[in-house]
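Query structure, 202 tokens:
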């Protein structure tokens, strides 16, 4: 039997810059407001190994990320730091590890219809300067790839959000044990998912 849309889950990490800027509540509020349900949450300081494994769960990540970075530079009429995707991703991973292990992060699992897609939409594009107003990154961050590359660091964009259902499943299993995730019912789910809206009138 296929799962209902409402059972889709995704992983979100509020990164060290989000914690330091006291944006935990704002970020959580954005996802709650749309109707997603928080089913797992914890605060921790990640190890280098945990972060490296997180970003390389997909064996194609190194090549795909490098190619995407090169294309992003070329689309803006800029010269990429290298034409070798793997070399570029090596630098990106080193900077990500440095960034993500600098302080506490809040790791969360959100559940609801189209959770992966909805969270990505609310979060905004990876590069804050090109993210739409109304998104988390568009509203709260002024960083750019040009500035972060010039400074030799990872772009500070407050939140990590899974990019696909498969990626979300792998990332959730990487960060959470099954017993750390909770199945429970919210009253608001009747409004979101009940076909006939039964039970509203007394």
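Result returned for the query:
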């Amino acid at each position: 039997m296929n799962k209902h849309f409402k059972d889709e889950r995704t992983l979100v990490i509020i990164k060290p810059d989000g914690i330091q800027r006291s944006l935990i509540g704002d970020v959580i509020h954005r996802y709650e407001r749309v109707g997603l349900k928080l089913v797992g949450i914890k605060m921790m300081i990640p190890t280098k190994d945990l972060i490296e494994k997180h970003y390389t769960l997909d064996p194609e990540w190194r090549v795909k990320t490098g190619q995407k970075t090169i294309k992003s530079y070329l689309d803006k009429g800029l010269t990429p730091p290298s034409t070798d995707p793997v070399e570029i991703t090596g630098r990106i991973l080193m900077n990500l590890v440095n960034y993500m292990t600098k302080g506490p992060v809040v790791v969360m699992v959100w559940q609801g219809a189209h959770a992966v897609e909805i969270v990505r939409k609310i979060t905004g594009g990876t590069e804050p300067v090109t993210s739409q107003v109304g998104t988390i990154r568009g509203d709260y961050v002024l960083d750019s790839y040009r500035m972060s590359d010039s400074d030799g660091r990872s772009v500070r964009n407050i939140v990590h959000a899974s990019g696909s259902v498969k990626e979300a499943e792998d990332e959730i299993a990487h960060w959470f044990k099954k017993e750390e995730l909770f199945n429970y019912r919210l009253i608001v789910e009747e409004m979101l998912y009940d076909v006939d809206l039964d039970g509203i009138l007394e």
